[in-house]
Design goal:
40% helix; alpha/beta; binds beta-D-glucopyranose; globular; 6-stranded mixed β-sheet
Length: 412
């Protein structure tokens, strides 16, 4: 490592977004979403989900499956209307461990779906007659809420033989292969949709659902279509990209794809911080670490040596922490600005009303201060909006699973 290090304050400027930039981002995002909605060329999508908002009165016991890109979670959930819900069983396994890896091009669709089916079996307690809702957190084409076909993988997953196929079809075949023909997949939805359904079910009136975990995305309820629309916000190309963002993109599995996600999603914030650090500390390589480790470094649970494998001076540590925090802050601000774009679309000429935004994911749940940075950025994205404008970020744990059960209830 060279002794001379860059001035971190100059580097920080690259990551800062002022009110004018946030405002521009919000307007761009709105225009790009409206283009997608109208069928014009757009870096966003307007994928129809065929699901409206729940009444909160839906009841019954369902299997819920959540496949997000890092873990597979199956649960048996009872929806109790006004009394909420109970998660009766829950089985979760990572897609990748020291012993196996179901994410790469060397696995097969059958192996992946058999793995998923075995997790469902454990959570269901055997071959019992349940309807199942499947939260499948990737871009899909749907013609009904019952099933969908994968458009393309993201989040560094690259399993062959799944794109273009019916997802609930692959699941059903795997359930049958694994002796569970009584379990019936009846609904398929995106995790953003699940988050929105779950929040509304729990009496938090929201029109926007956001996920910022491994990946990033946004959906909203479009009154003109009477259904929730999945924007596949990860694909937005209007964000202010730095050289570091370009580098992260170039080194990813699908360069040029999901560029906004690579500035916001937990799968990439660590990579972004790593390339920034190589620049800051002027070194050719730094061992990889996770976004969780990065956060633990800032919260004091881990030392620089724990995360990077070497020590730095106190001055370097100050710069390094400031740059890392900026990576998180910028991600949260971009979420706020994009949300404001959609709130503006929904409000039209009317004044913005008090409302909640349903949001799930490690960025809001694990990283201190993120919800208020998002709320602040919503306000700053619209110059005229006063500090006190009541937009509440409602973090929503288990939204992907609860939403899958609600979708199953809506589809039977
Ligand atoms: C996928 C979205 C998903 C998001 C969050 C993105 O990579 O394309 O469909 O909602 O990740 O999980």
């Amino acid at each position: 490592m060279a002794d001379m290090i860059k001035d971190f304050k100059t580097m920080q400027q690259e990551l800062k977004l002022d009110g004018t930039e946030l405002c521009r981002l919000a307007q761009d995002f709105r225009q790009t979403a409206e283009d997608a909605l109208a069928g014009r060329d757009s870096s966003l999508s307007a994928l129809h989900t065929y699901l409206g908002l729940p009444t909160g009165q839906e009841t019954g016991t369902f299997m819920a499956l959540d496949f997000g890109g890092t873990n597979v979670r199956a649960s048996r959930i009872t929806l109790k209307g006004a009394d909420g819900f109970t998660i009766e069983t829950k089985v979760a396994k990572p897609l990748r461990s020291d012993d196996y890896d179901y994410t790469t091009s060397s696995t097969t669709a059958e192996a992946l779906f058999d793995f998923i089916a075995r997790i469902v079996k454990e959570a269901a307690g055997g071959n019992k007659a349940y309807k199942l809702g499947f939260t499948f957190s990737f871009a899909v084409n749907q013609t009904s809420a019952k099933d969908a076909s994968l458009i393309a993988w993201s989040k560094e997953i690259d399993v062959p033989g799944v794109a273009g196929k019916s997802i609930n079809g692959l699941l059903k075949e795997a359930l049958v292969r694994n002796g569970m023909d009584r379990i019936e997949p009846v609904a398929l939805l995106n995790d953003t949709t699940a988050t929105l359904l779950s929040s509304v079910y729990q009496h938090n009136p929201a029109q926007i659902g956001i996920v910022c975990g491994t990946g990033f995305n946004m959906c909203y309820y479009e009154p003109a279509l009477k259904m929730i629309v999945n924007l596949e916000a990860a694909g937005f190309t209007g964000g202010p990209r730095t050289e570091w963002d370009r580098r992260v993109d170039e080194e990813s599995q699908q360069p040029g794809d999901h560029c906004f996600e690579k500035m916001i999603g937990g799968r990439y914030l660590n990579e972004l911080f790593r390339v920034i650090l190589m620049d800051y500390l002027d070194c050719d390589d730094i061992p990889r670490f996770t976004t969780r480790c990065m956060n633990e470094l800032f919260s004091g649970e881990k030392t620089v040596r724990d995360v990077l494998g070497f020590d730095v001076t106190p001055e370097q540590k100050e710069g390094l922490c400031a740059l890392g925090q900026d990576v998180f802050t910028r991600a949260a601000q971009m979420i706020g600005a994009a949300s404001f774009g959609i709130l503006g679309h929904l409000a039209g000429e009317e004044e913005l009303k008090e409302q909640a935004i349903a949001i799930e994911g490690s960025l809001v749940e694990k990283i201190a201060g993120v919800p208020s940075v998002i709320e602040g950025a919503v306000c700053r994205s619209c110059m005229g909006l006063s500090e006190g404008t009541p937009i509440h970020i409602v973090p929503n744990s288990h939204g992907a699973s609860i939403g899958a059960a609600i979708a199953a209830a809506l589809c039977v």
